[in-house]
Amino acid sequence: MGTDTKDLTPEKWVDRYGDALFRYVVSRMRDAELAEELVQQTLLAALANQSQFTGIGSEKGWLMSILKRKMIDHLRSQNRSQTLHSDEESGDPLDQFFDRHGRWRQRVRATLLKPLDSVDRDEFWPIFQECMSGLPDKQAGAFLLREVDELTTDAICKDLQVTASNLWVLLHRARLRLADCMKKRWLHEQE
Amino acid sequence: MRSCKEISKLVSGSLDRPLSFRDKTEVWMHLRMCRLCNAFWRDLQRLGSSVRRQVAEQEQDDSIRLGPRSKERIQTAVSNRNPRDDIDS
Fold first, then answer.
1. What is the predicted ipTM?
2. B89 touches chain A (CB under 8 A)
3. Chain B contact for A110, CB < 8 A?
4. Is A86 a residue whose pLDDT tops 70?
5. DSSP one-letter string for B29-48
């Protein structure tokens, strides 16, 4: 009964993988209650879909992939901002940053020129979370999968069900907003 | 000549895919002259590395784990749904 055979051992999942699954969510979402909820959902979903385990890759890897999907679904289900569903926003969200000639707007320049590395380490995560929660759902998911999990474009496109060019738009917007938001929050905290 | 808006798209894109020789050259030349886009480029690198570092620190922290009661709760939920629950688990 090895972990790379088709023999799954559900009765041992909590003991073997529970902490690792939990830590995956907590390290990204910093929400223990949510993490527990997602771990439970993951194991129950895995239980119901054991036939989908191909045996290629480990039992742990398979559970992790289900967990990641659950986390993305959670991000998508959040009513994250006032803007329209998913990454459809009225008008071009880049208008906030660039004028009609494509130049950086005056009002973002001062913030832009302040370095992001001035954000204190301990302050970083709460500010990051706050700024993430202001992103439209798919942008947040795209950012985490690309920047933290370092998945390829193809893998993320499958997870989020978007095209490659959609994904690059999502990432561009997420990065612009996060960098700007974080510096603004940090500078405001300093006042 | 591309605008800063266009360049910012390429700068972001360069983190996810290789740019064409032409695009790479244009970005490089623009970054040499534009303080603002340079700042953006620096921000993107810093943002990614900071987030990755902070996540990695948490992932390596063994003290972050399910409490015993939580484990019990989840185990019960799994066992209740598992038709093959073995007696010696």
1. 0.84
2. yes
3. no
4. no
5. HHHHH-HHHHHHHHHHHHHH
